[in-house]
Write a structure and sequence with these properties.
Layout lengths: L6 H30 L3 H35 L2
Length: 76
C-alpha cells in the first residue's frame, strides 16, 4: 500500500525549516538590539518580528495537523 503525497506534503517541511531559520535569525537580531542599547525601537521591532514569525509557524503547524487528521478520517 503506497501513501499518496500531495504538493503540500512535499513543500511544507522545507518551508517549515526556512521559517524556523528566519525565526532564529530574527531572535539573533533581537539579542543584538538588546545589546546595542539606548534605542528601544530596535528592540520593539525585532521583538514584534519574532512574535509574528512564531505565530505564523504555530498556525502552519496547527493547519497541517488538522489537514492530516481530516485526511486520515477520509481514508486518503
Amino acid at each position: 500500500m503506497t501513501k499518496r503525497t500531495t504538493e503540500e506534503d512535499r513543500v511544507a517541511p522545507g518551508l517549515f525549516i526556512a521559517a524556523v531559520g528566519c525565526l532564529l535569525y530574527l531572535g539573533g537580531l533581537f539579542v543584538m538590539a538588546l545589546a546595542r542599547g539606548p534605542n528601544p525601537l530596535y528592540v520593539y521591532v525585532s521583538a514584534a518580528a519574532v512574535v509574528l514569525f512564531a505565530l505564523g509557524i504555530a498556525q502552519a503547524v496547527r493547519v497541517r495537523a488538522r489537514n492530516l487528521r481530516a485526511r486520515g478520517r477520509r481514508g486518503g
